[in-house]
Model the fold of this input.
Amino acid sequence: MSDQNVNIKPLSVLIADDSHLDRKQILRCIKKSEKLSQFDCDQVKSAAETISKLYEKEYDCLLLDYNLPDGSAIDVITKIRTETKFLPIVVITGFNNQKVTIEVMKAGASDYLSKENVNSYSLERIVTNAIEKSQLKLNAYKNKQKALQNSKLASLGIMAGGIAHEINNPLAILAGQAEVYKILKSRDLITEEKVDGLFDQIEKTVKRMAHIVDGLKSFCSDLRNEEVSLVSTNEIIEKVYTFTAAKLESQKIPFEIINSCDSRVSCNSTQVAQVILNLINNSIDAISEQEKPWIRLEVSQFKNKVIISVIDSGPKIPKQVQDNLFTPFFSTKGVDKGTGLGLSISKGVLGTFGGSLEFDAQFKNTRFTVSLLAEEVVKQGRAA
Done:
């Protein structure tokens, strides 16, 4: 395909200013600029029109007057930033002072330009820089989301073997009960009491399978849910245990849970469960060859935080490895066992709702801690 046949969509800019003369001056500067002259330009005169226009059409940059008749630039930015996270916004104002600059930048503006300094050169420089920075942020966000999705898929892969084992066990029980029934029937030994006993065992087994399947359905549906809510730590630990019990049993690794509290924490419970699953899986890989391996999960509360610790029988991690534990793509595993994304992604995920992931360098064994905000802290924050 030749270049002449490629239809490249021109970039577009929205100019929001209640002054006709100021809008005319901005348009004149855009037309004079070599880089901006091909931009499609739309104009609005109020905050309400600005917000409405941004919902109607996707723009590559917003040139926003600081003072509009029905609201300030800060009002507009506050309302649109959740929906237009990466839109470059340049605030243009007659106020040429540092306080205003700090205010608009804190609100989420990409840059700032005083009206007395508006010319084709300054406008070109600020707009192109704002667009380039926004594109870099967008690319970084997309890469992070892609890495996070890979991490989620890896968690599902880890669970798959455990779930298969968990379901195969009750299926074997059902098959066994059916065989017992056949034997009893062939020997004419069927009694109402024995039938009731068989059915009770079958009912318990079916409920166990349903519980496993419901847990998997919940986990998979929550992969698409980024909402944060108050949840019980017991609920999180139960979810983790459901998906790790079989693997730990097959590896013959003793697993102990010490839960000294059942607090409600502010988080996305599935994402926290994923982080803990990743830590436990790392422990299994690290200690599976030991003569007497073990893993312990401890839950406690210290002041305003709930601490979930994953501890294993491994020795202290060497200092040179500690320094790189949370570096993306760093891994001490073989190429077939891990990408090194786990810990760095886990740390970032927990940070989105005020949590943290740390390695305890002082502990005699290998110990990672997940810290989450307790319910009381969240309530105080809302009251404030």
Observations:
- The first strand starts at residue 12 and ends at 16.
- Residues 147-383 form a domain with the Heat Shock Protein 90 fold (CATH 3.30.565.10).
